[in-house]
Amino acid sequence: MAKDIIVLTPNGRRQIVHCTPDTIILQVLEDACMKQGFQPTDYDLKHHNHILDLTTTIRFSNLPNKATLEMVETERRRLESNVTVGLLLEEGERRTADFPPNTSLYDLVTSLAPSEYSSLPHPTILYMRQEVVGETALRNKTLRQLGLISGRAVLRLLNKSEEGRQANVSAVYRRPLSEKPDIKEQNIEARTTNLHQFNDDSSEPGPSDIRKNVDYTKFDPIEHIKIVKKEAVLEKEKSTEEVQYEESINTKPAIEETKMDIDHKNNDENITGTSNTSLITQENLERCLKIEEEVTFIGTQKAIAFMQPDDTEDELEDLPNDFYDLTIEEVRKLYHDLQQHRLELENTPLITANKREENIKQTSQQKLLMYKNAVVRVQFPDRMILQGIFSPNDTIEDVINFVKTYLQTPDKPFHIFTTPLKEVLDPTTTLFNAKFVPCVHMHFKWSDDNNGEPYLKAEVYLKKTTSDAAGILASKYRAPCRRKLEDSSDSSLKSLRDQPSTSKHSKVPKWFK
């Protein structure tokens, strides 16, 4: 259904643009600018204080007939760039390339899939709900006319005849399936043939004893199907029992020998596997217990210094860009988490501000009981990391003073910050309020330019610790303590002791107490 859109131009005139449901908003803007002499890259279209997306069509823009749009100046001049097009073939293969917006669909298809295009009698390009059928339509249609002037898009190459196409109808296209006989249809046909045969031969008695008792004057197809199933089950049971008896006689000794061999192998593998795992876990436990003897402390707060390993940086640099793209399963999981969070918010009862503050204080107290240490790491530009153990109530100023004691020039101004979204830390805030419990990774930077001098003292570089030992030490001190569990168990014991003991609750006699 065609629509008329009224565009208010900056010169105070009204321009009527005739549109179809597949007309894009960009085409409306270009038509209005061409008739009134404006540059379309400098303007946007606004409808009820809402800037319209120029790449959408009239069908999906929710614009009524005779809708009034206003041309407003853009904050930035709109620049066109190459469009990354992914062409999806019927076999499921996707071919990707970059094209300018003025590229025709015929040139796009012939460059990405020339052999597949030549094999299709009626080539069709499907984008959103827009269908371009036939070679002439593909030559006349460009990416710009589809609303693609930048970004990415997926086009689908199909085979569809022009005669069977309906206007403004979105058809669902699926991959052609291989022709295989339907098992259900075969079973239905076999049952119907059996029923017809039974009706034809109903005057004659059946071979089995079960059929002799059936009243053939009143035929019931359901009863007949049950009888046939029972006979088939009985015949199968007889045949399987005979085959199993013959096979058991011939293969019984061989099966016993193979079972013995498999049992011996499984026992050997289980013994070796359990011994290896037990050795590994025992070594790790012994190393965690004696880790303080392995590291070299350089000062207070259990301070150690170690060099960042090169493997992590190499791994991060070698990762392709596709590694950071979300998969379908990850998007589903994120959507599921959002739904669960929304349901939790809807089902939670309304509470007052005082109650909310009490809950926040309670959770903070539980976290303070759970973590008694905070592992702080400060990384320097030369990849040296300084690690220290602090209390959750220590402030950022304590960390700054801790770093000053190991600097080559402690009087020189510097600042520490966290990433991502670089944030300079306030010295008065505590580690717990800054959410740096149980661990935090900070970065060091001079306030002025560095002249190539070493950041830390020479003693620190000489007393370096290995990175794996530093990681084990950090995991030891940032682990949650059991003080919270002990307190909860003590409180439960006290509540049990405070309860009045009656004869109903306890069956212990009084003289025994």
TrEMBL record:
SUPFAM superfamilies assigned to the protein according to its UniProt record, in alphabetical order: Ubiquitin-like
Pfam families linked to this entry: TUG-UBL1
Gene3D superfamilies xref list: Phosphatidylinositol 3-kinase Catalytic Subunit, Chain A, domain 1 (3.10.20.90)
GO cellular component terms listed in the entry, alphabetical order: cytoplasm; nucleus; vesicle membrane
GO biological process terms, semicolon-separated: glucose homeostasis; intracellular protein transport
Region (Disordered): 193-214, 482-513
Biased composition annotated in UniProt, kind: Basic residues: 504-513
The organism's place on the tree of life at top rank: Eukaryota
Residues of the TUG ubiquitin-like domain: 9-71
Name by which UniProt lists this protein: Tether containing UBX domain for GLUT4
Organism, scientific name: Galleria mellonella (Greater wax moth)
Gene transcribed to yield this protein: LOC113521331
